[in-house]
Amino acid sequence: MDKQAEIGFRMTAKTFHGLEEVLADEIRELGGKDIQILNRAVQFQGDKGLLYKSNLHLRTAIRILIPLIEAPIKNQIDLYNRVREYEWEKHIESGKTLAIDSFIHSSTFSNSHFVSLRTKDAIVDRLRDKFGRRPSINTTNPDVFVNVHLSGNNLTVSLDTSGPSLHKRGYRKADGPAPLNEVLAAGMILLTGWKGETDFYDPMCGSGTLGIEAALIARKIPPGIFRKQFGFENSPDFDAGLFEDIFDSVEERNWEGTIFSSDISKPAIQAAMKNAREASVHKNINFRGVSFLGYPVVEKTSMAIINPPYGQRILQPEIISFYKAIGDTLKRSFKGSKVWIISSNTDALKHVGLKPSSKLVLFNGPLECGYHRFDIYDGSKKAKYQQ
Ligand SMILES: C[S@@+](CC[C@H](N)C(=O)[O-])C[C@H]1O[C@@H](n2cnc3c(N)ncnc32)[C@H](O)[C@@H]1O
Q1: pLDDT tens digits for 28-79?
Q2: Domain with CATH 3.30.2130.30 in the chain
Q3: What superfamily in CATH does domain 182-225+253-385 come from?
């Protein structure tokens, strides 16, 4: 066993604002050590097995990076030199293609395209000297992804071990209007604490993301199981046997509950059913093309997450009265259940007419959203005080 494998190495899992804590819990459960919560990221320590597991199992990670270079830099010459002196030949074999992604918060360097170009030049020059040939750049489907982060004058260059973003689970074959990012949907579910204890409702399901992610959580199916490839599989030290063992050790749970996914739009239900079949969870989901307003009474205590139109990307006439009608339906049909609603329309959210017991802030793409929890009491005082 080499030294790095013995002592492990540091990894950074990137996520969305508000999901850092649930991601840290997921990493802890997988066996990550020295966990540190950052802004939209979690750092942790582990070995190669944990790296593979993280890519396969983490529901709320967008990508897993291995930081290779961390250095202060003053100008583009420093940038070039720091990148060129790193031993890239350890990570990029001769003949492999390469892409660079840069994220800049710096007054010295304002152009991320320029930073990507200088980084690329330095890596290409280093590898040409070592191998006698230049690696090619392929921005659409590269073998190796390199991630550059410049905060002020602090440069971090990392190997992106995931490749395409981990929200690309591989099951989405059909889109509805304004689909949720899969990582955000999984995070929204984990933030509620639900892991399959009750039935689950996604009554404005669109393309079905919340219901499908809920089924994957309830059945303990890793979200990466449908992906054809991860970035780390192109690494010169990729251990195919170890990855196969990790893949083979996945144990699905036989889950007896039901997920109820519905939508007023028939094409949306068709899309949701197609995606659920792709994810092999269609048997766990009851699909219905019905309006939420007028929803039948839910008999069992359940969990519901509602992602209604916000009146921004989707035009929704009379959005305030629509949100009021959502509240009326909840009071009538979801007594005893816990319900979470996400919306960027915080004004409309106030008209649900129920007092939120918790208010979180999440971002659905660029839209800042309230994510509010409502505990729907069943009306009797006994039920209210003895829950
Ligand atoms: C923001 S989209 C949901 C996107 C979904 N979470 C996804 O990941 O694809 C809102 C959905 O609410 C549905 N909708 C609008 N009014 C509805 C109603 N009265 N009852 C049920 N669904 C409704 C729309 O058809 C649309 O699919």
Answers
A1: 999 999 999 999 999 999 999 999 999 999 999 999 999 999 999 999 999 9
A2: 3-160
A3: Vaccinia Virus protein VP39 (3.40.50.150)
CB count, 10 Å around CB of 89? 14
Q: What is the CATH number of domain 3-160?
A: 3.30.2130.30
- Alpha carbon of 292 to ligand 1 centroid (Å): 9
Quote the ligand 1 centre to 222 CA distance (angstroms).
26
Distance 205 CA to ligand 1 centre (A): 5
Summarize pLDDT for 12-39 with one digit per residue, the tens: 999 999 999 999 999 999 999 999 999 9
What pTM did the predictor assign?
Answer: 0.94
In ligand 1, the atom with minimum distance to the C-alpha of 310 is 1
* Residue tagged 């792709």 (tokens): 278
Within the chain, residue ranges assigned H as helices are: 3-7, 20-30, 48-57, 76-84, 112-131, 182-192, 209-218, 240-248, 266-278, 319-333, 346-350, 381-385
Best of 202, 204, 274 to mutate for ligand 1, by most ligand atoms within 8 A of CB?
204
Ligand 1: centre distance to CA 102 (Å): 35
Whether 291 lines ligand 1, by a CB cut-off of 6 Å, is yes
List the strands of the sheet with 97-105, edge to edge: 33-38, 41-46, 9-14, 63-72, 154-160, 144-151, 97-105, 136-137
**The two three-digit tokens of residue 360, written as one number:** 């979180």
Distance of CA 172 to the CA centre of its chain: 14
Q: How far is the CA of 309 from the centre of ligand 1 (A)?
A: 6
305 lines ligand 1 (CB under 6 A): no
Outline which parts of the chain fall under CATH 3.40.50.150. 182-225+253-385
Q: Which SS3 state, helix, strand or coil, does residue 137 take? A: strand
